[in-house]
Amino acid sequence: MATRRWLLAGGLGWLAGCTAARQRTGLNVHLLKNSLPPVWLRRFQRRHTLHIRSHDQLPDLYQQLSRSHPPDVVGLGLAWVSEARAQQRLSPLPTPLRWSELPAAWRAITQSHGQVDWLPYRWGTTVLAYRRDLLPWQPRDWSDLWRPELRQRVSTVANFRELLGITCKSLGLSINPPLPWPAQELQERLAALHRQVRLYSDQYYIQPLILGDVWVAVGWSSDLIPVSRRYPQITVVTPTSGSAIWADGWVVPAGQPISQAVRDWLHFAWEQEQVEALTTQGIAFSPLAQPLGAHEFWLPMDAPTRQAYQSLQQWWLAQPLAARRYDQYTDHWPTRLL
After folding, report:
1. Number of structural domains, the chain?
2. What's the predicted TM-score (pTM) here?
3. H or E segment at 42?
4. Does the residue 330 lie in any domain?
5. Alpha helix locations (H) across 65-182?
6. pLDDT tens by residue, 241-295
7. Domain span at residue 102?
8. What is the pLDDT of residues 159-193, one digit of tens each?
9. Looking at the structure, do residues 239 and 254 belong to the same domain, yes or no?
10. Cα–Cα distance measured from residue 86 to residue 57, given in angstroms and rounded to the nearest whole number
11. How many alpha carbons fall within 13 Å on the CB side of residue 78?
C-alpha cells in the first residue's frame, strides 16, 4: 500500500530502474503508486512517449531530487516541499495555465520567493474510518474519539503533529494554534486520547480495523477511501470541524531542463477533462475543483512555536506504552512517533 508515512527505504533495485529510465527517450516521471487515474496515463501517451516509475513511499520520491541523473518530473508530497526548497532541490516552473483560477490559499504554497516551483494536482485530508457493523453510532467529529466506548478501539497513524492537530480541533482550536498554547489542557486531552488507542502505526493502522480489533481508524483519505471500497462494512467520515490537508504536486529537479513534454505534463493535470477524471475516481480532489472549507494547511513553525511543539512532543514521548501484542499486524513494534 502506498502511504504517506515517513519511513526511509533503500536498495539498489530502484537505482538500476532510474538509470534505465534515463537511457530511454521520452518523458520520465516518478510518482507515488496509484496516485493517478489510469485514464490520465493513456491520454497523455497520445501526446508524448511516457515512462512512469511508481514508488511505494513518499520519501523515496524525495530522494530522486538528489540523484546525479534525476527524472524529468517528480511527484512530491507537500510535507517535503519546504525541505526541498531549503536544500535548493527544485527548478522554477513556468506559470501554469488556469493559474488565475487557482484559489489564493493554493497559490501561496506553490511559490517560493514569488516563483512557482511546486504544482499541486491532488489533495485530501486526515479522516476517520469506522466499522459500521460493530459501532452502533456514526462518528461525526474528532471529539468522538474520546467517547468511553472507544477505549482501546482506535488505531491511528504514528504522527505526533497529526495527533496534536486532532486534539486541537477537538478543543475548538486551529491545527496551527497561536501562542500561548493551553499546554495543561492539551496534555490532559492527549493523555486521554492515548488511553483510547490500541495501535500507532503508519504502515499497519488499517489492519486492526479490517480484522475488527478496533472500531475506528484515523488516517489519510488516500489510504482509507480505497479500503472502504473493498470492505463495505468500513465507512469513511470527514470530520465536520475540518482536518489537516495532504497534497501531492509536480516538481522538476534542480538543473533539469523544462522541455515541451515537461510543460505539457505540468499543464495536463489542470485540464478540465483530467480534473473531472480525478473527481470521478473519488480518492482525492483537484485544487481547481473542490473548496478547502474548514480544512487547513500545516503552517511553518517559527522558533517560539517550534519550541512549544517540541516541549509537548517530548512530554508525549515519555508517556508509557501499555504491554500489548502487535504481532498479528507486524513482527516488530513500529515507530510510534516520527
Report:
1. 2
2. 0.85
3. helix 38-44
4. no
5. 81-86, 104-110, 160-170
6. 999 999 999 999 999 999 999 999 999 999 999 999 999 988 899 999 989 999 9
7. 13-123+247-281
8. 899 999 999 999 999 999 999 999 999 999 999 99
9. no
10. 21
11. 23
